[in-house]
């Protein structure tokens, strides 16, 4: 490489660190950084904590980032490293968006708490509290495949619903998550759910209920209205949450191979069963079945997944209804009455 080019690349890196740091600090200050201070870690601390991002430190791997466990000053952390190759100069803003919105909601118990970040990498590396019980897998189970008891899965749904309700109601500008799915839900030592990942999240303008934007998210969870028309609304999240409910209830991923060899999405699978008059089989052990609760939960999930946005309930109502379902812990009767 020619010396002048090497020098230019070095200068660009220095500019990125300087400008990125300034940009990040301004955004954090603008989004309640005073009450949610975050710590800045050096690259040496991050590399030592993760054994230079060694696979042995993996928590989970996503398309755009990887989670690692790292120990700094005798404290465990969840460390999120973005995949540099997936982000253009234009889309780097999504990384900062993740940091800022994570900071904004960190005082709420239903979100993974942001503790700090390092700007001494091509893209910021983000540091969160460590979730002792890991992350859900694509089937809504523990990452090692262990199925969670129904009461824990119901509790997870309730806590994620509360988290999404908070995003939709707590700020002058409604925050739309846009990527609600099991692998963005972590579990602490008490099996409390912690929603995370604001990479694709967007804040609607004050007083506005929708915007048009490019389609992002995860296949199987994307609202069909959003997919076909580019309209982002609070009901975009309601649909994704409904799919999450189905995954937790059936123990199947949002998209899976059907009996005919073709891919099948979980919503069409359930609707097909109902149209044919066949029962929807809920996952769980013999002593874990709560058919009344589960049928009410299924009905709510399908209402969240209605084709038209206006036919879906708001998240605040979804959260309230799940709490009602949970209160019927002795189980509800077969007709869905508590």
UniProtKB/TrEMBL annotation:
Family matches, as SMART domains: S_TKc
Any GO BP: cell surface receptor signaling pathway
Keyword hit for Electron transport: no
GO cellular component: plasma membrane
PROSITE patterns: PROTEIN_KINASE_DOM (PS50011), PROTEIN_KINASE_ST (PS00108)
Keywords: ATP-binding, Nucleotide-binding
Keyword set includes ATP-binding: yes
Domain Protein kinase, residue spans: 53-324
Protein name: (rape) hypothetical protein
Species, as recorded: Brassica napus
């Amino acid at each position: 490489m020619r010396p002048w080019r090497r020098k230019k690349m070095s200068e660009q890196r220095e500019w990125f660190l300087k400008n990125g740091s300034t940009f990040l600090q301004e955004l954090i200050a603008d989004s309640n950084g005073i009450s949610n201070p975050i710590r800045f870690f050096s690259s040496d601390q991050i590399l030592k904590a993760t054994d230079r991002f060694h696979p042995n430190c993996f928590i989970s791997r996503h398309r755009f980032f990887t989670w690692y466990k790292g120990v700094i000053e005798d404290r465990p952390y969840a460390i999120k490293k973005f995949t540099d190759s997936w982000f253009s100069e234009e889309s780097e803003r999504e990384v900062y968006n993740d940091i800022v919105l994570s900071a904004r909601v960190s005082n709420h118990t239903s979100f993974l708490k942001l503790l700090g970040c390092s700007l001494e990498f091509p893209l910021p590396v983000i540091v969160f509290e460590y979730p002792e019980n890991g992350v859900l897998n694509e089937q809504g189970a523990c990452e090692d495949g262990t199925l969670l008891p129904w009461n824990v899965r119901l509790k997870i749904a309730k806590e994620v619903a509360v988290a999404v309700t908070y995003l939709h109601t707590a700020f002058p500008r409604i925050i739309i998550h846009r990527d609600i799915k099991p692998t963005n839900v972590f579990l602490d030592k008490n099996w409390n759910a912690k929603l995370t990942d604001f990479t694709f999240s967007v804040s609607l303008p004050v007083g506005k209920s929708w915007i048009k934007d490019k389609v992002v998210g995860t296949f199987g969870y994307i609202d069909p209205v959003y997919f076909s028309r580019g309209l982002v609304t609070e009901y975009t999240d309601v649909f994704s949450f409904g799919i999450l409910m189905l995954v937790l209830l059936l123990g199947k991923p949002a998209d899976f191979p059907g009996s005919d060899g073709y891919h099948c999405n979980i919503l069409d699978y359930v609707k097909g069963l109902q149209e044919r008059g066949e029962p929807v089989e809920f996952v769980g052990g013999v002593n874990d079945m709560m058919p009344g609760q589960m049928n009410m939960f299924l009905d709510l999930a399908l209402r969240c997944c209605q084709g038209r946005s206006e036919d879906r309930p708001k998240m605040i109502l979804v959260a309230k209804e799940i709490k009602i379902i949970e209160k019927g812990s002795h189980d509800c009767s077969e007709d869905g009455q508590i």
